[in-house]
Design a protein that fits this description.
heterotrimer; A alpha+beta (374); B alpha+beta (418); C mainly alpha (668); A: five-stranded mixed sheet; four-stranded mixed sheet; C: 668 residues; mainly alpha; Cytochrome C Oxidase, Chain A
Chain lengths: 374, 418, 668
Amino acid sequence: MITPGSKYFFGLTGLSLIAAILYLVLVNPTDLGAVALFGLATSGALIGVMASFTRDGDVYTDEEAVAANAAAGPPSFWPIVFALGAALVLTGLATVSVVFVLGIAVLIGGGVEWSIQNWADGASSDREFNEFARARAISAIEYPGLAAVGLGVIAFFFSRVFLALSKESGTIFFIVVAAAIFVIGVLIASKSFMKGAVTVVVAVLAVVALVGVGTFAALSGERHELAIAAEEDYYDASHRECGEEESEHYDHLANNTVSLRSAVTATIFVKDGKVYAEAIGMTKKVDTITIPRSNATSVMFRNLDEEKHRLVVNLGSAKVGETGVAEKVGTCTQLTGKNQEQVMTLTIPKPATEAEPYSFTVPGATGEIKLVVP
Amino acid sequence: MSHSVSPHSSEKAMDIVNNVKSSSHRIRNSIATVIGIVALAGCATNAPQDTWQPKGDNAQVINNLQWIIFPMAGVVGVLVLGFYAYTIYKYKDRGQPIPSQSHGKPVVEIILTIIPALILTVVGVFTFRGIFELANTEDTEMVINVTGQQWWWEYDYPAQDDQGITQPIISSGQLVIPVGTKVLLRETSRDVIHSYWIPALNGKKDAVPGRINLLRLQADKPGIFAGQCTEFCGLSHANMRMEAIALSKEDFAKWVANQQKDYTSPAAGSLANEGEGVFLNQCIRCHQVNGLKKADGTPALAAPDENVYSGAAPNLSHLMSRNTFAGAKFDLLRKSCRSDVWEASSETIGAKYLAGVSESCLNATDLRAWLRNAPAMKPMYADPTKLVKSGGKYRGMPNLGLTETDIDKLVAYLLTLK
Amino acid sequence: MSTNELTLTPSQSPGLVKSPLSISPSGSLGAVRRPVNTTGWREWLFTVDHKKIGIMYGCVAFVFFIVGGVEALFIRLQLALPDGRILSADKYNQMFTMHGTTMIFLFAMPMAAAFANYFLPLQIGARDVAFPRLNALSFWLFVSGGLILNASWFLGGAADGGWFMYAPNSGPVFSPSNGVDFWVLGLQIAGIASLIGSINLIVTVLNMRAPGMTLMKMPVFTWMILVVQFLLVFSLPVITVALVLLMFQRSYGATFFDVSQGADPLLWQHLFWIFGHPEVYVLILPGFGIISEVLPTFSRKPLFGYPFVVFSGASIGLVGFGVWAHHMFASGLGPVSVAVFSMATMAIAIPTGVKIFNWILTMWGGKIWYSVAMKFAIGLVVLFTIGGLSGVTHAVAPSDTQQTDTYYIVAHFHYVLVGGMMFGLFSGFYYWWPKVFGKMLNEKLGNWNFWLMLIGMNLTFGPMHILGLQGQPRRMYIWTEARAGEGFFNFGFWNLVSSIGSFVLAVGVLFFIINVIKTARNPERAPLDPWDARTLEWLTTSPPKVYNFDRIPVVHHLDEFFHRKYVEDETTHTMTQIATCEDLMRAEEAAADTGIHLPGPSYWPLLLAIGVAVLGMGVIYGTPIMVVGALVVLFSSFGWVLEPSVPEPIDFDSPSTDGHTKEIAPLG
């Protein structure tokens, strides 16, 4: 069962084990070194076992047939693909990492195909049979792989077009393309006989057009508003505007329903311009809410008023960095409409003091709820 | 041709004889053991966390249910197992022929299905009532916020005028409540799930981070009731304890007044004053004492959020008004003084508890050992070299490397926190 | 042969697959040629025979049983006295977590799988399960999962969050060592094993029963196993989801259970217990199935109320999915949920009670032989009744809020698991040992085994009821005098009794091991039908031939085998024996099938399991290892698919006239 090929790998295993042990004993071991050597040993063992299971990938052959076959091996483009992969890898190392990754993929794909081709060629002297054996072994990877690559290409170039066009022209483009595909499809389907070549030509033209348009779109870059959005985060806390008015970005597409109901410690309402609160376990309304320090606690805000409001929590002030200027600390919810609610989750590390009390307020309504952090 | 199948060898026959004699006794022995055990349990022990000794209304509701379901289960068990023992005795192989191959009697089956269903329905009705009774919060008279953290409990009493609490009180370890008052605990946690359980007063309720869970407590008479965290919460789960102290309404008012007293700095030049200095140097990083001021007169604010992963450490204001520390694992009182409180009658416990911890009663050994090397006393994650996963923050009190003189000063200072 | 011709002669010289190739896959793609029957260790490593797999499951499960048992003994040593110093807090937390996990996932479920694998095909008159290579994969995945789980002891500490590993304590901050990662991976792999096995057995039961065996003529053991497989199919995916979420949180920075990011810790509890509750029925129903065979056999009467037993088993399985939150009565669900689950939990006591009554009434009016197997079966009924009644006391939710997380609960589930499940398994050992190994386990040693286990078990877990009611919580590495109570019968007394009992129980298990060794050395063979049994697995040799039955039996009755031996007079109701097992076997062999095809052995399940294990380790130790594991998995899957469905012909001939069974074993 220990085939000749697997012996090399078992040898590698043995040597790397010895090396690993020596390394641990003699050298001051680092994690990386020990892991690498043991990893090498394990890989060697594993590959050796697999090699012996598959008898070195050996396909029994008829020696005569091999001899007869030796001179006339069929042509194959996989070695070229492999070489292309190697070239891409080296190029990628020198330039962009995308090329490097692409090169690795091509290398692996080409290498696998080349090996299977070689193995199948040795199965017998009959090329048809060899092709059958090759297909049997690798089709299950080839077809899905090609499909994935094809779909990836289509999706990528299609998406570049949409990222470049504005929203309106993107819609028009989509309708036009979809209509074109539909019309061509109907034409092809309605013909009772269509030469295979015609459909292939149409498909190739379509792909070429897509790739061309897509490349052009990619090179012209994304449309303006996306580019800006990527640079600034409008939902960042520093952009939060906690006043009475609607903020263009922070209140854009505000959430207005809350799915999590059971995990709030208290609910603050605003009704008829006045603020009041109820807390879990308290039977009457409360004017003070207590939140333990450093504990992530949620407070619900429900707007029962006609106008839109938001809830603001005031957490005293803090000195900002080097300038020493005291800046107000706090946060707020988005603007909420009538009978709608939002949740605010607070983790307050410092306690409230007499000098710096905490409170909840609603801009545009009267009253405040005190917030005690003991 | 008829055979009756008999055992193949005389050895097997002997085995049968032996087995038969012993097996009928076996069942009786098992049953007797079980009944005996249950009976013996009653004659124990006054274990502090006994679940069959209710000392308040809520625990009484549960106990009433226990007195329905346990005897019922016992009676059913005795009947079923008794019948079984009889069967085993009566039908052992004494040479009778192979019996008629009866496949069952559906009528018997149905009756035997209906009877348990009826019994359980009755139990179900009582259970239903009990569940809703214990979940009622409409009649709450006092609210206390309870926060669990690895491995101690924090209590804060929000201002409630009708209970005489004008400013929030913060405490830990021992929960003080007035007698005969419907207290509602609003439980949460800062880190993992804990569970608050004082068996004498009610069943347990988990303290879940991000949620508020409610638990009713009410004590009939003044007393001290033991409890323990009962949801596995990590390394020192077994050391996370608490006690509830019920005081008469007058005593409770005195306790509240004491908790709301202002902080007084120890006399200048005293050992305690130097201890205050040590405190401001070391302990203030995590522990807060309300009213304590720094040398320049500004309030000294503790910063456990910077040093402790879960963001808080016990507030030590009025430390000596409690008599446990370190998550109620250790006593502040020496053994004899502590037994005094623990075994006091309901009339005297108020005065004894309110006396707090005096110098003569202080358990200096444990307190000093704690200050010297806390992780050695209670397993915690406080080794500075192993705090990567918690971002360099402690999970528990570290070994501060205090000198013996520092400890002397600190102990003297802590004694002034009455 | 010229290069242009293709000769289509089938391979006639096995072993020399060098010359003319046929188009048939067999022998052509030599790299993935199937192994042939070999002897020795390779016979076991590459087998797909359900009987060998069953035996392997049993052996490995028993080893893990000992491991879990030793963990339990450490726990009891630590708790025997106050302020115990045997284990540190950290080690104790690891010990109880691993004890629970090992006993449930690495002992109980695989041991039930051992019985199911061995006996289910035999009981339904089949020659093997529906997917033999998948069967082997289940076993090797279980071994991988078990090894990964226990590797944690040597690689930085085992998991220490309790066997139900509540979040957020299981998160990366609160459980910083790799222990929980090993736990998560080991259980995912073992879960895949069980899931694959369950699909396999469901298909087997539904499709491969002997002619004439309707579902209501199946033995009860088969029925209970079928219900268990359905429970697994629906509950394992839920815990797999939970484990995947936890794995992503611990290893890849997800925040599924991170409260500061808005998570609710109760999500883990719900996911876990939706699996966890059906899981306990998965644990107990095989034991119920086993004693439903043992009790009738040794009472010489059929099971009382077969349809009721079957339907109550199915309804326990079904209603079992509706009671999970009774593990969460103290978690803050709200009174409405608590009330609903409390009522549902009481409801589930009813079908369980039905079974108990049926077992007792089976014995009523019988002719009872108290062999060791029978004693264990009776022990199950008694101890499960006690455990079940304590369970009813915590169906009452307010009462449960006093009992949950105390030793009272520990007592309850150990009574139903040790007294119920384990006694059922031991009953199965003694009952079926002659069939599997051809020898009878010694009855005298068996008696010592039984009595020591019974007494030990009651001494260990009986006092825990009292300890729980006296207020000792569970999962505490230490208990102190301060909470122990006064008087003689306080924590100290009961903890000590319990610890002593655990060692008595251990000695009882030791007697079983001695019995096994002694039996192995004993040359005396067992008779074909030592217990005058009732079901089809006894219509075979001991041990059964590799193809199980000489011919597939045609089934006319429930307890078919018994009906072939005995006839009941309609009027007088007396039983007359018309044939012995030996008579029946002779008839079978005379009319045996020829040309029986059996699935051949295969490498790929083993390799695939190794690949999955490496993949799992890669989650903890780095993506490169994961890639290697993934490649091995991919490679093994391909090999599995491409290997020929039939190996070289290994048909089995009928016994020749001189009485020997001839096998054509082609290669050495």
